[in-house]
Amino acid sequence: MDVSETLMETQLMRFHSLQPPILRGIETTSDYESWIDDIEILFDSLEYSDERRVKLIGNQLKEVAKSWWIATKEVLEQRGTMITWKIFKIEFYRRFFPSSYREDKRAEFKDLKHGQLSIEEYIAQFSTLLRFDPHMAGNDEAVTDQFVKGLNP
Q1: Residues 53-84: pLDDT tens digits?
Q2: Taking the CB of residue 73, how many other CB atoms lie within 10 A of it?
Q3: How many CB atoms lie within 10 A of CB 26?
Q4: Is the alpha carbon torsion for 144, 147, 150, 152 positive or negative?
Q5: pTM for this structure?
Q6: Could you count the other beta carbons within 10 Å of the beta carbon of residue 15?
């Protein structure tokens, strides 16, 4: 066994010892939001690379979710798409959040105002809704403009 295999095994054991959440693909929309949030927090706290996240995520998918990922991954690979964590999340949102739900969330994001919210609540809602506008999420200037636009004068 070479060093990279040993390292992967060690990281896999460490990851599983933290009891990461499982996704079956039969949960509710709010459960999907919680799952992706929880798994990302775990990956961030472990400082896992993009590549490591993609390798580990398949272990947390069961039943419908696992079947979906196997098929999706195969299609992406046939297209020659390099599967990154960002690509996984885009595909995840496409599959587990209906387009009408994503559109409603995008509209909610565009219309979000500080209003009566505390600044902490505004930041939290802004961050949560930003995920539903992936084109904006990749543009720091647009994100900043949207955030400032929603602030109270």
Answers
A1: 999 999 999 999 999 999 999 999 999 999 99
A2: 18
A3: 10
A4: negative
A5: 0.76
A6: 18
The amino acid occupying position 111 is D
Task: State how far the alpha carbon of 81 is from the alpha carbons of 26, 51, 56, 73, 74, in Å.
Answer: 27, 14, 18, 9, 10
- Helix and strand totals (H; E) in the chain: 9, 0
Q: If you ran DSSP here, which 8-state letter would residue 138 be given? A: T
Q: Tens digits of per-residue pLDDT, 79-111?
A: 999 999 999 998 998 999 988 998 999 999 999
**Cα distance between residue 58 and residue 70, in whole Å:** 8
Count of positions (residues) in the chain:
153
- Please give the pLDDT value at position 145: 93
d(CA 112, CA 57): 32
The neighbouring-strand residues paired with 23 are 61
CA 129, chain centre distance (Å): 12
Q: Place 1 in a pLDDT band, splitting at 50, 70 and 90.
A: low
Place of tokens 């992967």: 8
